[in-house]
Amino acid sequence: MKKPFSILFLFTLSLILEVNLAFSQMSVKVGGLIPFAGRWGELGRECARGMLDASKWFNSQSKSPRWRLEIVLNDDSQDPAETIAAYRKMNESDQILLLYIYSFETAISLLPHIHLHRIPTLISSVPNNLSDPIRYPHIFSLTPSPLDLSKIAMKFISENSGIKLRKSKIVFIGSPDRFGNHFLEEGRSFAKHLGLDVGPDIWIPEPHSQRNIPLALGTMNAYGADFAFLSLTSKEAFLLLQESTKLGLKTRFIGGLRAFDETLLPFDGVLGVQPVSPFGEEVPGMAEIIEAHRKWHPYDSHTLSYVEGWATVKVIAEALMRSLPEQGSSRLRVRMAFETFRNFITGGLIPPITITATDHRPSVESRIFIVKEGKLVRHTGFISAGR
Questions:
Q1: pLDDT tens digits for range 103-121
Q2: Total-model pTM
Q3: Which helix (H) or strand (E) holds 242?
């Protein structure tokens, strides 16, 4: 008769211990600035979902009884006053240990504050100059720089154009803001070095009206471009490709990090230099993502921006685990932990990460994908831009 009572007692005790353990865990806070609306809103929202799911997964799987990961996300409205207010809240009230920023333009505006408070900051992708640890010791990134990705695209084109009797012709199409053109001078020089014929730069100002896109395509067609590299959002790239299809143009398009995702599935043959694995791709790191998806929201659909968010948290969690000794934590330890990454693998979600005290770029490699029969299909293995 005592056995059922003993089992009930032990079960109740285990629940009490589990609750006490949860309350005794230190909450390690990571702040985030991600756009939920505007030009980057669709991509940002999906990335945020991936980050929140990945942190939930990490906490459920973690074997550490000492701490749990807490992601504090804020909408990056790109309004300077609101951005500063959100930053101050995370720094002063939330006392974050690490900051994540989706937009490098927002990161650039916050550089003085980041360096004043010495907050290790992970950014989705940054210009090459921000990867200089002497000038920017607290800045790190998740994916190769836009310049390195453009170099990879140029290498691929130079080796796979199929054009033998003349130089392949290429144009760069982007927005006239910093995102669209900061890498352009070096990207053009690299393309010429590889023997490509580079045409006029083509800008599509916002709003991307029905008048602006045909004018841009007209310039491209007049030059006779064989290829066009897109430095746009995927939604903007979609409108451009839609118009190009209507006009029957033969130019092949290759999108950069933000231009190429599942939005372009209607356009077979479109290429993308994309370091992030599409949702559902058969790579080892996708297994836990699929399991979490089936467990928590099996009827939702996801994109590679969701995978990017998941990979972001994997990198953040790894840096925190390397920097949280028994005696406590500090922002300095987190920064130093990033510099210990050597060929850190996320199971193929993003390229292997190596960060050193002399180069904060995570990788200079990416694969080329292609739209084929309504799917994003791996077209090449990793291609390196070289360090």
A1: 989 999 999 999 999 999 9
A2: 0.91
A3: helix 234-247
Picking from 81, 134, 149, the residue whose alpha carbon sits closest to that of residue 110 is 81
State the amino acid at position 229 in one-letter form.
F
| pLDDT at residue 159 tops 80 | yes
Residues 148, 361: contact at Cβ < 8 Å?
yes
Q: Are 34 and 76 in contact (CB under 8 A)?
A: yes
**Largest distance between two CA atoms of the chain:** 92
Contact 235, 263 (CB under 8 A): yes
**pLDDT above 90: residue 326:** no
Q: Cα(142)–Cα(124) distance, rounded to whole angstroms?
A: 5
Same domain, 294 and 327: yes
- Asked if residues 94 and 29 have their Cβ atoms less than 8 Å apart, the reply is yes
Query: How far is residue 121's CA from residue 135's CA, in Å, rounded to a whole number?
Result: 14
Buried b (16+ CB within 10 A) or exposed e, 253-282: bbbbbbbbbbbbeebeebbbbbbbbbbebe
Same domain, yes or no, for 109 and 191?
A: no
d(CA 317, CA 186): 34
CB contact at 8 A, 283 and 347: yes
Are residue 290 and residue 270 in the same domain, yes or no? Answer: no
| Residue 340, CA atoms < 13 Å, CB-side half-sphere | 12
Query: Which of helix, strand or coil describes residue 55?
Result: helix
Please state, as a whole number, how many other Cβ atoms lie within 10 Å of the Cβ of residue 132: 14
Measured N-to-C along each axis, helices 80-88 and 104-117 cross at an angle, to the nearest 10 degrees, of: 40
Lowest-confidence segment of 12-16, 105-109, 281-285, 318-322 by average pLDDT: 12-16
Q: Which domain holds residue 99?
A: 2-143+281-356
Return d(Cα 96, Cα 33) in angstroms, integer.
12
Q: Give the three-state DSSP class for 354.
A: coil
Residue 177 lies in a domain: yes
> Hey, is 309 helix, strand or coil?
helix
Pairwise CA distance, residues 316 & 297, whole Å: 24
Rg (CA), the chain: 23
